[in-house]
Fold each of these.
Amino acid sequence: MNRQPANILDRPLRASRAGDTMVSMSSFAYLYSELVQYHQNRVDSISELERRLESSGYGVGLKMLELLAYRSREYKREIRLMNALQFVSTTVWKSLFGKPADSLERSIDHADEYMIVDYEPLTSTFVSVPSDFGQLSVDAYMSGIIAGVLSGAGFSARVTAHSVQLEEGEHSTAPPSQFNSTNLPPRTEKAVFLVKFSPEVLERDAGMDR
Amino acid sequence: MSKATSNGQQLWNKVPKANAELFALTYGALVTEVVRDADENLATVNEKLEKIGYSIGIRCVDEFLAKSNSPYCKTLAETAEVLGKTAFRMFLGIVVDVVQHSPSSFSLNFQDNPLSLFVELPENYKELEYSILYCGVIRGALEMLNYKVDCQFVKSPLKGDDTHEIKVDVKQVMSDGAGEDYQEE
Amino acid sequence: MVFLHLFIVNKSGGLIHHRALSPKAPQIGTNEWLRIGSTFHSLYAIANEASPMKLSQNKNVSGADDGIEEIQADGLVLRCLQTRTGIKFVVTAEPGTSDIDQVLREIYILYTDCALKDPFYELEMPIRCELFTTSVDALIRTMERSARLGIR
């Protein structure tokens, strides 16, 4: 049996099909549940819990950007804001969750805000937020990931997660995740990730239009 | 192929999946937090990670029992086989070798470790048992099945070994049931 | 084919969940529920000890403690699933209701998905996870619908 080179930098990054390595969704869910509980025991407020989850996700986002960039044959650094967002909502999402995000929208009211929508956010799949926790979204971790990817790519943004009630008849039109889905009943809420870019990012991007 | 192995494969094919890299990076984020909060006292970190594993173990065992249709294991050897061949496969997709040392001890050997996909231990972190989470999971799960065990990493590629080896020693087999209160004197 | 009630008892005999599965289910007050839970837990163990036939080590084929599997009465049927980890899932139904065992097994699975993976659920404590109750309701509706349509 081949012994791996001792130095981790010399080992293959399992580039070819590495992104396909899986664990069961349950394993991720238990691990994530422990991460949430770990933070929950150390905070005094719901917003602090969300911030800590975002912060945990941020580092993951940075690393995912590196991994995906390394693996993609034709990765060109995105320099336009819309392309960076599309990279997140398609490539990053497909890699992490087995399917692209359900939609990417621009805010009507605020020029610096965009929304990425997911009808089945992974991190809240098995979670029931108690009523006394108000508007807590445990998908804050995913916001952190988004923020990490964007920041790493040069598009710093503040990203927050919001659980929004689905409207009558509203549902995902995307094909199901290739990671298989649970047998749980359809969700009543979707996750909306609000991306608010820094002013200098918007200025820079607008400047490229001229 | 044993029944435990084929059962493990079937279950693995059926269960919903998640990206192992997301899993690995999430664990990395957790370890980072624990290390920071323990002021880099690695013995404390190991203990904390093991406890987190225990918390997972006492929960995932019910999922295994509910979903796996595994036959009732009457001996430790059978339990070890099912743990290594079915459970590890079902939850992590990895192939595990089970080696029985004695009626009260066995080892689980495996190559692939989804927890440590991108990890290398820096020099001053050699005391950190990075994947000790598994030991806690095994300890918790077996405790719910009335085995009180000690669980240790004996070999780890992060420490220079070729493979992973987790050794499980049974300290006590507990009797259970509320029935004890109602037995005739 | 009507499912009436579900209740769940933890390994210490504490009632951690109760739910009416149909509008036909009689109303039972909270204190009564607590009494039902602990009484059933004790009866389960007593039945094991009182039984003239003992299974090896008092364990049934799935390795769980042996005890009351079913109670048949004029107005209802009660079935219990005891897990190896000591939890009792109990469902009552109108006589003639089929597939109660399957319902119990599915509820056990829902417990493992919707309660045990919820960071806000504490083991052995009352189950208040909305996802669990929603999923149980959906399960019962599915079972009753397929029974009505004769689907197997």
Note: Chain B has five helices and five strands.
Amino acid sequence: MRSLIFISLLLTGLAINAAPIATFKFDNDQQEELFHKLSQDLRCLVCQNNSIGDSNADLAKDLRNEMYGMIIQGKNEQQIVDFMVQRYGDFVLYNPPMKPLTWVLWFGPAIIFVIALFYALRIIKAQRSDVAPQGMKASESERLKRLQAEAERTSHRQDQQE
Amino acid sequence: MPLIIFGLIAVVLVTAMMKIKSGELRVREVPSPLIGKMSPEFSLPSLYGQGEVSTADLKCGATLLNVWASWCFACRQEHEAITWLANNGVRIVGLNYKDQPQDAKQWLQRLGNPYSLIASDIDGRVGIDWGVYGAPETFVIDEQGIIRDKHIGPVTQKYIEEKLQPLIEDIRKTSSCEA
């Protein structure tokens, strides 16, 4: 019984998710595929973290209708994307085009990563040289190891006592 | 060194936050690609049934195309500023966006009508061509029909003083049309 309720709940969820697109009828599968792709690639201007396909905003509905009309007329993906960009700018694209204005967007994270990596390596190196000073004699490093082992044992014993 | 970097990031974030709070930086605003381009062509029924309102009606001196609707709360906020502009000789064409004509007329009857002409864009189709994504939005159009500026959200005193008035003066320098 419980699993039945669970399954029916799951199905209701599916039905709600499918609702914005379900009302459109296409001539063929390619058209439907293109519609789904564009629905995900284009951003809703009103609720800026939703795609046109996900959003319930009035404008998103209008733009879906507009898209549907163009697909039925046989317009291709590039033509429809151009239509949107002409009116709303690059902002409608979830994948902004590569141009000087968007370089920071494209390369910024990689540059920050490289800088962070550089500093991380430097810090790690510095810490390593603290632990094992170079130019130690064999007997000295032997003694260091012994002392470290002893210190560990003592602290271990203390832990147990506590 | 890390302290300097932290300090720089903190300064950038705090200034951005202060600018957002004062309204100088508007993060939700989508810059219009239409600025500097010709007005998208349209021809729509006039709200008061006197034929059509079209792109040709925008080409006279400095004209504002104000996108508004009776359902739009911020339009009521800016109504006073829009009326002030109309009373001071600025020609304003209204684009009644996704609205019912009778609601729009009621709204104007109650608050006053500052518009020279009103185009009725009931299904919002012309709004899409203009890249409208909400109301109110205001376009500034020059003699040639070129869009010179777009203001998103209610027109404020600050916008009028800092941007609109200098722009209108600039457009009128080369204009021959008396509105």
Note: Residues 22 and 148 of chain A are 70 Å apart (CA to CA).
Amino acid sequence: MSVPILQLDNVSYTYEEARRPALDGVSLTLQAGDFVAVLGHNGSGKSTLAKCLNAILRPTAGRVLVDGMDTADPSRLLDIRRTVGMVFQNPDNQIVASVVEDDVAFAPENLGVEPREIRVRVDEALRQVGMYEFRLHAPHLLSGGQKQRIAIAGVLAMRPRCIVLDEPTAMLDPVGRREVLSAVRQLRRSSGMTVVLITHHMEECIYADRLIVMSEGRIAMDGSPRAVFSQVEALRALGLTAPETVSLLHSLRAEGWDLPLDALRVEDCAEAIAAYLRRPRGTDTDLE
Amino acid sequence: MLKDITLGQYFPGDTLIHRLDPRTKLIWLVGYITALFLATNVWGYVLMLAVLVLEAALGHIRPKTLLSGLKPLIFIVIFTAVINLFYGSGEALWEWWIFRITADGIRRAVFMASRIMLLICGSFLLTYTTSPLQLTDGLERLLGPLKKLRVPVSELAMMMSIALRFIPTLIEETDKIMSAQKARGASFDTGKLTERARALVPLLIPLFVSAFRRADELATAMECRCYHTGGARTRMKQLVFARRDVVALLVLAVLVAVAIVLRHVGV
Amino acid sequence: MPILETRALSHVYSQGTPFEKTAVHDISLAVEEGELVGVIGHTGSGKSTFIQHLNGLLKPSAGQVLFRGQDIHADKAALRAVRFGVGLVFQYPEYQLFEETVFRDIAFGPKNMGLDEAEIRERVYEAASFVGVGDGLMETSPLELSGGQKRRVAIAGVIAMRPRVLILDEPTAGLDPAGRESILGNISAFQRSTGAAVLLISHSMDDIARFARRLVVFHEGRLVMDDSPARVFDRADELKEMGLTVPMATEIALALRRRGVQLPESVYTVKYLKKLLLERRGEARPC
């Protein structure tokens, strides 16, 4: 098997003056091409985890390998950063330039890429997030969703192998959230890039291949979104709720209905219920 | 409203003035200011005004926009005019205590006010038609030789472009915080001077806290995009000196020459 | 008499310039004491401009705002009193915190009202308890608190003025589900125990559906719907056309109806949907 794109061995991180570690012995392996969602409360350690993935923070114990490079090795810093791109919560605070295309060009300029090559990368990155027509606009006049897509393009212009999005939709309205998520999914489809999506919105995890639930600095659950969300009680114990689709299925099951718990999307959920209602009575499992 | 301040704002466009190399425009501004200080009589000022109007027309900048830029600085203009008013020599037209107004004083006041207004408008024409990034890029290249003297020109240019980028963001933020404090009964426009100064505390503290938070997040984001000092940065947009830049600089040379000649023409 | 009312309110930005833009147009809305009204509309629909008129931060270009039946702009001196009677909590209110201690920050509003020490003290503690800020935090610096706690302190700063109308712009933005739930619970408790009117702006239809008894919908500067949640969410297609979402339960109900499951239109909570489904199953069964 090839070298994993991200490998965490027993990683811990304790902030200065903190009593408890924010990250407490996390081990995790991500292969190139994975789409992983990380879910957890504020303070669960999910953002600290994100910051360890491209050496913004260096673990206080354990180690993080990015494509085989140890994030504790300062000589590999630029290679690590260009391999794992990072998008943050507040789009305003990550846009550097006053014109969209100049902002997207920022990272390749820092890397000393040839001017003509930068142009190619900038145009490509802007097209990937559907913002090419806005290349000459001033970022502060755009909507939150548009600004966040520009931040994503700014990372894509480095041609990273992995992109980590740290709560990219937390400050956006529903329209902006949809824009950003569909840009991420589009990116997955077209490039097969490794994506780590950190969020506290259940519904945003549905499209991931793998869902990791963080709690108190540790990995509490790890599996496919279907598998994780069908553990309604375990989620509740962590103070999280399953998506409303699963909640409904779960509460109907409590009434004796024979329904699957892993129909996460609205259409799947409705289909499961409709199919159940169509079934003749005899096949029912409840025997009232 | 604070949002109405146009100080240093860029109006995107595709006119001849917009297309000029920022280095040309910077040199032009320096040349224009030089010519302005060479002007000592009416003809000189008429010429400088005509040049300014022409530039504004070529850059599709409305006179109203240009004048609105003066608004926040009008105090400086009036102050200078008043000071000069009392500094003239010759026969007094009006006299009271130590104040003396002469024909020469009036002339000086009008000229100084015109000079400052033309200077401000000329500078604004530059920022209105040049994107902050181009502007800093131009400055960085022009000041490039200073790097040899260990002046961190690139870093300074980066700081300047970031400051410009965050002006609209921070103005918007100031507006928001002011509204929020007004909603809690704060008033910023009544009371004595000391009270007003104290009333600014609920505005300034949150603004600084927020600016520091933004700076912190921005620094992290920039590092994540491989910003590092000392490395060789490249630029997507290369500055190219075109034929129009050569023409513009020739015109500038003529302008300065004419300004010198006009000095010796009587009023 | 409604506690707060707007009559044909319009607001035009940059009037008389080429940038002239009508932000809100001809809005008449009356809010009674004790009501909890949900305000919906996507970014740029005019709802934020509208609410800034309700405590006089913005002056209408046309029309009136009435608080307790009085035009708030009739008397300039009285306008400040309106600010105290109509409390407005902006988006991300934690950015307005500035005092050295939590206590002093919450006390800023009451102090501006010119109340005496004892009264201020009483109100600060009362407001803090409404939003679940413990007495132990009173002497800490607001800057040391967590994001969710800062938000609570900021809301308490407005509640401490004992407003008769409390307006909150996205009070749960950026919070995790647990934080959202608890702040909405606090607001609802404040409304029940003080009898104040509450206007709650939110993008989360699921939150709005659970807490509001009346919804108003803004679209392109106009008030396009003003009805019960059931009747508003009945018009799911129209809402979606305006770029708005509907509660997940409504989505599921719509998907079920497309599959031939007969359900009444107005479904907007999971609890109610479950009840309807159980009833249907009951009917389908031969007795």
Note: The CA atoms of residues 4 and 67 of chain C lie 5 Å apart.
Amino acid sequence: MRHRTFVSFIWPSAFVMLLFIAVPIISVGVQSLFIQHEQVIETVENCGPFGCKQTQQINYEATETLRKEKPLGRFVGLEAYTNRNHLALEEVKESWGTANTYQEFYKDIMNLPFYKALVFTLTYTAIVTPMVLILGFLVALSVNRLPSIFKGPTIFCSLLPFIVTPLIGALILFWMIDADGIIGGTLQIIFHNPELSLKASPTLTWITLIIYGIWHSAPFSFIVFYAGLQTVPKETIESAKIDGANKWEQVRYVIIPHLMPLVIFIALMQLMDNFRVFEPIIGFNASANATSLSWLIYNDLRGSDGNMVFGSAAATSFLMIIGVCILLTPVLIRTWRSYQKVS
Amino acid sequence: MIFDQIKKFNFLTLLALAFLILWLVMAMFPFIWTLWGSFKVQGDFFSKQDWKNAIYGVFTLSETGHYFTGKGYKGAWIIKEFWRSTINTIIVTFSVVTISLTLGTLGGYALARSGFRYAFWILIIALIFRAMPHITLVSGYLFPFFQLNIWGYLATTIIVMVAINQPFTLWMLHSFFLNIPKELDESAMVDGCTRFQAFRNVIIPVMWPGVITTGLFSFLLAYNDFALTGLLLTHENQTMVPKIASFLGTTQVEGNIMYAVAAVVSATAPLFVLVMFFQRQIVSGLITGAVKG
Amino acid sequence: MFRQILLVLILSLFSVAAYAGCGINSGSVRVIANDFPAIHAVGDAAKECDGGGVEISINYNKDHKDIHVAALTANPAEFTSSIVANSTFVDLHNNGLIRPLNEYVEKYGDGISKNQLITIDGKVMAVAFMANSAHLFYREDVLKAAGQNPPKSFEELLTVAKAIKDKGLMEHPLGGVFKSGWNVGNEFVNLYLGHGGELFKAGTAEPNLNNAKGVAALNMMKAMTEYMNPDFLTHDSNANQALWEGGKIALVHLWGSRAGAVTDGENSTSEIENSTKFAGALTVGGGSTPAAALWWDGFVIAANIPDADAEATFRALANGVSLKMAQANQEKANWIIKGATPTAAGVGVSATAQAGAHPYPMVPFISSLHGAIGSEIVDFLQGKESAEQALSDVEAAYITVAKEKGFL
């Protein structure tokens, strides 16, 4: 395709992405290198319904003059990336020097918000992604064996966890898994433990979030695999059977290799989405026991009234993008090879 | 279909069936529970006393005189005018799906046929774009939107969603187009068509399965989005999800949680119709595309 | 004849206009506000002035606090007013986004009493109309069964809770809004203020928590958790209300704005509702000021708008916070509007205010500190680290943010 034609086809799509994604990314990147001007603080008398009090406020005019001189703020380079709320290089170095055992070092590291979030995010991604692939594949194989009249409703019901708004899905599940809720209450009976609570211990919270993640995303991989199964050539299966392959061997040597491109596709999307895990943490009020990188950004921007820390959120966002790139490298290399082949 | 030959009852079929039933129970149970609970009062469905209240409807009976109540639905649809949000959601999802697919098919086609190295890099950049958390993006939009006086309109939100949705759409459609043989449009061009004519006359008729599948995912994104719609729309223009979120109340004030539950059930119903209607196309769409990854 | 008819027509038009517009006949009023019933009541009353040349639109949004700074920074501002609370007021005020209201209060402030005005160095910056604070909710019947009087301090709260538990009346008698994040941070702020602590070193943005008072506040929280449901770190106000209505807890320090909801004849048994009683916030550590910060909600007017719009906005909102509105919506909030009387559910907040509780601090750096507290003290409550370690983590996290925001 000639460059000119290429451009005329792609420009609308490229234009919206540039305007609404690339420009913000660049501005966020620039922002993460600066901190705000020194705020000029003054003491004033503040009176309200509950009496008068001396408090501090920002002298707006004085601060504004500073801001006019340098609209971007004070340049600090990569400090936002290395400070305590992010990579915490100093704290890590110090702990490495003082900690006597690895356990102690690990404890120190887990006390830093970024690493705490990173550990959960990676664990979540590492468990949920393969489980989603496996569960989705098994469901797809099973649905494929059903008589065709049952297929339609089964497909819809299987899709339910994926299509319902995560915000609300998590809210309702949050009540169901409560120690006094239907699932939580039933688990207490099953395990003969009236004190069992899925929300109290970190381990159980992690397990709950991970199961929720698998439950929520499995339908996505199911529908893709199910579609893929329809394309497995009958002849190949037949000839495998003639060669004496049993069911397991048919799946292992015929179906799975045929579906490999789909596995890559789902893995790619799932790695990205799971790395961004966020909604269940909010929905399950789980931030005491589990935080993720996306949650850190949320906390910086929306966590408490008006405490927007743009630079910090920007830095975390960039660290996340780098993380995604690292995670996706194997997949990308494969795509690059197949791309070379095509062209 | 693969296993159609094996009609006889055997252990494996039984195992598959048992597994499937287990999965369906897991997948459906929360929704059946919600559907049932949406006809109860809050004291029953969100009971701390005893979850069995949700089944027997103790408070529903004492507060309304019946075992079932439509209060949640009445509150959401009539008192809180949920229908307005429904109309907004229809406008938003329809526009987002149409516009993203239009842009996406053009772009995806170009990427699939380009053959130059930069096409690969565009795809990679698109993927990195997709990694950007939406909350960071939306905070960046607010001030410029207010300054340009385009905040709050459905159109603004639609364009933003289209943009955010483009990376996924491009990726998916690009792999669909890779599956359509090159010879098809090339032979049309040999016959004297321009690239665009070839696209229109030869490619468009065969691309529908892929487009419908991609459309489903765009639809779900627009339908379920909260990060963008929560901050970019005025009260009148709110779509369903931020509206439902507004029923939940704040830390100081109690919300109308049953309105939210009823609204969620109402919001899932059209999806049922949609999936039932399109399931064949979705599956056949996935067959032809995506397989290439 | 014709002339007379015309005259009558014109006159009647004028009177309609005057009626519909509360006397306002030009300007554009655009308000952004949170989305809950009390605010809707104010908004609806302000909307009565709509028509006759003035256009009034009110944007209710649950996330208004995330929008209003950007919206009012734009020039001209998207909204002419925002309905704020102590904490959200600070953002707008410190960015120079709101205007002094003295002139309007003088002209149109007949229905506004002096203690509704938020005055900074003599400049009226906001008009408050409702108050809120945490205070004690207790179950009279359960306390009686345990042979206990309602507690006056947090120390007594623990004794009463212990008595209830020991008698086997309830497994976890104590509630608490301890959800990690803002809520648990708020509990700490309340207790720390109750201990007489100052959150910042005088006159600066330097944190001042890592001291004996901070440790005492944390230890009190830890002691409370012994009598709470083990899920306490996930319990927000909604969960506490449900616990209360389900009869699972007998004592809780909860938002006054929830008092009406637990006695509204819904979702609970009459037995529980009838013995639900309210009292002012508790003291702690032998102090005399209640350990609960006072909050207000009020309106401000944007700076970046034409004066005519500002004036129209003030008049419309003054109508919105009128006594008539407060009387018609008595149960929806603790109105602090001139002439409004507190309801049965409002006694807790009034008692807390009368006992001399501190208002929630209105310094520019409070939200950064509050956020840091909310996420860093959780490890201590889970028993993973010492109180001193938790407090030094809070300070470290806060200092990082405060540096970025230019406070330090």
Note: Chain C touches chain A through 74 residues (CB under 8 Å).
